[in-house]
Amino acid sequence: MTHLTKIALLLGALAVSACTNAGRFGQDDPRLDGSAGAGAGAGFVPGGAGDPSSPAYFQQAIGDRVLFLVDQSSLTAEAQATLDQQAEWLLTNSDYQAVIEGHADEQGTREYNLALGGRRANAVREYLISRGVPASRLRFVSYGKERPIEICSDESCYAKNRRAVTVIAGSAVS
Amino acid sequence: MSVNHRVTQVLTALTAALALLLALPAQAAPLRIEITEGVVEPLPFAVPDFIPETAAAGEWGGKLAQVVADDLNGTGLFIQTPQDAFISRPTSFAAPVQYNDWKAINVQALIMGAVSVADNGQLTVKFRVYDVFSGQELGKGLQFQGTTEGWRRMAHKVADAVYSRITGESGYFDSRVVYVSETGPKDDRKKRLAIMDYDGANVQYLTDSSSIVLAPRFSPTGDRVLYTSYATGFPRIHVLDVGNTQSRILESQTGVMSFAPRFAPNGQTAVFSISEGSNTDIFTMDLASGATTRLTNTPAIETAPSYSPDGSRIVFESDRSGSQQLYIMPAGGGEAERISFGPGRYGTPVWSPRGDLIAFTKQHKGRFHIGVMRTDGSEERLLTASFLDEGPTWAPNGRVIMFTRETQGASGQASLYSVDVSGRSLRRVRTPDAASDPSWGPLQ
């Protein structure tokens, strides 16, 4: 088993436990209307959103996600502004790792969307690296169209599903 | 399932006796359906309840006839004449066929069956097929034996034989499909692998739903399944033994993600995609040694590879031109030739087991289609249209395609559908829960 696989397994364990947390998507960026999730307030680390060093602050005040145009993985100016702040936070709070999760809307075939989500997540990862975040602290994964947060079948939902979410994975990976 | 079928020929004495009745002038054309011509008028057939030949066999006669009838009706090539239209009802498998009674109600193919249950519980099913208008038996009688749990398979074998005798092509009824069973709302979908008979009966679950599983693919003999699982937190290819449902992750998978696996016709090699950075390419792996070979090397998304039946070529999708299109390359890699040129995007190509056609998913003007084209890209035909159709898989005889259809909106759900290569006989395959990503296995 390669070193990379070991890391993948560790991160995988985190990702799986996160996936079983029904409240996770309920704590979304307040700019989104949050209709997808019930049960907000899962609070998986100490430190509320008011604490600038907390992952909750990262998620809610900075914004943990960026959105993409149809079938695109290039970063908009708005996305870059969000990622500049994400990079700053990650540089300040250097104990944390992050997994960038890439997603696609449902308008695409399953395999292609998996690859497209990977492109999006990697675009975020490369941008954060270009802003000085060490590559070793950043992993990415794609969920393709498997994990929509909005469930209607029109552009208002698709726009929010075409996303890359920077999930703070805690400092457990060592 | 451990059904041990033996196929034996029934005595042919009856045939000789019936030959005397064949003095009548035969119909101009023999009983025959040419599938390629596209059947407008399905052929009327009758299948009376199989005649019970032992006391314990009574319950099976109607069930067997029903499955045979459903199989044949489902093709769209045949249409059942209902039993309440029958003028006479056979009471003995050995009695002469009353052809005039079947001609009078325009039955063209008559399937006569009998069933017996031995003291040890063994089920024996035998049948004969008659061409009513020529007054001849079509082929010889056959007999199958198995356990009572395997009764549906015996009915499917009867239907396969009837289909084969009338169309001249092999059937597809005694086959299984592996797929993804889905439960839960759209934003919290649970997925697990399941296997079923081609008609949705006998569903068994192969995995639990603790991690996302995607796109299972049968091995050529149906003994193993390749699929993508997030069990490690990342998409990785696993192989599952259908017999004992044990699965393992394939060794030495490099890259961030690996997915879209499919077996080579030899059953020893897997072809799949690896994503590294923003790039997704196609690789093969020798399943025994884990040795991996790169087949494509462009900055594009290249995925959904599928072998030609002779193993010499691979069809796949790539967006190297700027949008998803279909390409064919030699099985060892090398220069790829684009075959899709129509408007829209083309993905998930699958090579027909007959070698003649490529099935694909097409997106155009906000609609999804399942279509087929020849391997040089000519004669494209779209077979379906809906909000979201994708992921075709071929019946073992290359005449029917099963695929995923997902409905629109917040309550949207995935189901399995089948359609024949002419675009007829679109029908939903009933499954206990929502279902996606079918892979049709071989004729058993």
Report what the structure shows:
- The complex is a heterodimer of chains A (174) and B (444).
- Chain A is an alpha+beta fold.
- Chain A has a single domain, classed as OmpA-like domain (60s Ribosomal Protein L30, Chain: A).
- Chain A has helices at residues 3-19, 55-63, 77-92, 110-130, 155-161, and strands at 65-67, 98-103, 138-144, 163-168.
- Chain A has a four-stranded mixed sheet with strand order 1-4-2-3.
- In chain A, helix 3 crosses helix 4 (110-130).
- Mean pLDDT of chain A is 80; it is low at 1-45.
- Chain B has 444 residues and is mostly beta strands.
- Chain B folds into two domains: 7-167, Rossmann fold, CATH 3.40.50.10070; 175-443, 6 Propeller (Neuraminidase), CATH 2.120.10.30.
- Helix content of chain B is 11%, strand content 41%.
- In chain B, strands 1, 2, 3, 4, 5, 6, 7 and 8 form an eight-stranded mixed sheet that branches. In chain B, strands 11-10-9-32 form a four-stranded antiparallel sheet, with no helix packed on it.
- In chain B, a hairpin with a 6-residue loop joins strand 9 and strand 10 (190-197).
- In chain B, helix 2 (58-75) packs across helix 4 (151-167).
- The chains are: A alpha+beta (174), B mainly beta (444).
- At the A-B interface, helix 1, helix 4 and strand 3 of A face strand 16 of B.
- Chain B: Belongs to the TolB family.
- Chain B: Residues 1-28 form the signal peptide.
- Chain B: InterPro entries: 6-blade_b-propeller_TolB-like (IPR011042), Tol-Pal_TolB (IPR014167), TolB_N (IPR007195), WD40 (IPR011659).
- Chain B: The Tol-Pal system is composed of five core proteins: the inner membrane proteins TolA, TolQ and TolR, the periplasmic protein TolB and the outer membrane protein Pal. They form a network linking the inner and outer membranes and the peptidoglycan layer.
- Chain B: It is found in: Periplasm.
